[in-house]
Amino acid sequence: MNLKHARILVVDDEPDVLFALRLLLKTEVREVVTEKNPERLLSLLGQQPFDAVLLDMNYRSGQTTGNEGFYWLGRIREHAPTTAVLLLTAYGDVRTAVRALKAGATDFLLKPWHNEQLLHTLAAALQTKTGSTSGSSSKKPVAPTAATALLGESAAMQEVRAIIEKVAPTEANVLLLGENGTGKELVAKALHEQSRRATRPFVAADVAALSEGLFESELFGHIKGAFTDAQASRVGRFEAANGGTLFLDEIGNIGLPQQAKLLTALQNRQVVPVGSNVPVPVDIRLLSATNAPLHALVARGTFRQDLMYRLNTVEITLPPLRERADDVLLLARHFAQVYAARNRQPVPEFSAAALRKLQEHAWPGNVRELQHAVERAVILGAGPVLLPADFSLRNPESATAAPVTAMAEQPLPLLEVEKNTIQQAIARHQGNLTKAAKELGLTRTALYRRLDKHAI
Ligand SMILES: Nc1ncnc2c1ncn2[C@@H]1O[C@H](COP(=O)(O)OP(=O)(O)OP(=O)(O)O)[C@@H](O)[C@H]1O
């Protein structure tokens, strides 16, 4: 995790330390909360998730044993096992620091600290926490983190969560089905985080975005000199995910030749890098996702049945947002909190009419569309209560006609033209971003970047 996105809790009984750390961290991280009473630690952790806690070792004057620090470290480990804990220890007290690491601390910081060093240590601890450079050998599954919390109280979402809980600890391959923006990638991350592979890598690949030529080298790797641009050997996504989870997104969009190669790799549990003839064994759990009707593609003969059976030991279908109106409100309030915090604004309320508007909208882009709509409303909204006018929602039918008329009447700035063209393409394909991207001649990743740029 990036320092900029982190929520940090600092617990120390010295007001000067709290003041100095708040001053240092507030421009570097997303949120910093300071607390001088360690007794309040657990209730703070219960109120909101923190990515890291900076914890002092001694709270009573004259005490230098660090025992209180160890006690609170243990309690944090029980309540928030994924939160990084950095202990603040007196300079020179290396023995306590080593004991702290053995007791489960992520790292320690010496008082007085150097600001640069502290930021560096904190950033490294956050990296370790997300597992991207983790050297941890623990095989214990971790609880889902806030970043991957799958929200929704509708019967459909409760069922999805129940299936995740059952399937996550197994080695079953899971196929995630559902429209764009329904949360398939989020479910994939939740499956990984609740699995025995949680401390190993989670590697995602958008296979629809890969050209036919790139598919093999991206997934299986290549050796130096395998093709003109291959100036160095490179491991593919399979090898990068070794021991962990590989998530193949948009699996329904790959052609028959790629399907055959993928099936061979899955059957043999090994990959052959491009340009090599030496197979490399791989141990991965495969999760895949698509918004395409995969069973219909099999019936039509454009997707191999034997490959589908490899992928869908378990199938989870994410329901479209329009079928779970109650979740719309819950998610809207959640995103309002997230974006208000991110922009350091008070959390806005929703007027009854605004809530009605959100519930009645068809959400062709599902949760992603709602997320962007709320973000835009939080940033541009006029007051503490969000009104219907703060949400400019387009239904697929109305989106096609309006911008064309506008273009005919007066010249539009280039950015507006780009935005309109994208919106029309998305509307024409009923929110299917893969098809819209294809029509626009963009990769899905490039389309996402533009959606973000235009806050669509
Ligand atoms: N149930 C949910 N609770 C909280 N956030 C959600 C939920 N479902 C989706 N989101 C958020 O909506 C956005 C889109 O979700 P995600 O990328 O997982 O969808 P997807 O189905 O994989 O989309 P695509 O098919 O377009 O790749 C993400 O920012 C995700 O965090």
UniProtKB/TrEMBL annotation:
Pfam family for this entry, one? HTH_8
Q: Which GO terms describe its biological process?
A: phosphorelay signal transduction system; regulation of DNA-templated transcription
What PROSITE patterns does the annotation carry?
A: RESPONSE_REGULATORY, SIGMA54_INTERACT_2, SIGMA54_INTERACT_3, SIGMA54_INTERACT_4
Read off the InterPro entries from this record.
Answer: AAA+_ATPase (IPR003593), AAA_lid_NorR (IPR058031), CheY-like_superfamily (IPR011006), Homeodomain-like_sf (IPR009057), HTH_Fis (IPR002197), P-loop_NTPase (IPR027417), Sig_transdc_resp-reg_receiver (IPR001789), Sigma_54_int (IPR002078)
Q: Does the record bear Nucleotide-binding in its keywords?
A: yes
Q: Which residues cross the membrane?
A: none
Query: What keywords are assigned to this protein?
Result: ATP-binding, DNA-binding, Nucleotide-binding, Phosphoprotein, Transcription, Transcription regulation
Q: Which GO terms describe its molecular function?
A: ATP binding; sequence-specific DNA binding
The highest taxon in the source lineage is Bacteria
According to the entry, every stretch annotated as the Sigma-54 factor interaction domain falls at: 150-379
Residue span(s) of domain Response regulatory: 7-126
Q: Which of the residues bear the PTM 4-aspartylphosphate?
A: 56
Q: PANTHER family in the record, alphabetically?
A: ALGINATE BIOSYNTHESIS TRANSCRIPTIONAL REGULATORY PROTEIN ALGB, TRANSCRIPTIONAL REGULATORY PROTEIN
Name by which UniProt lists this protein: Sigma-54-dependent Fis family transcriptional regulator
Can you name the source organism?
Hymenobacter lapidiphilus
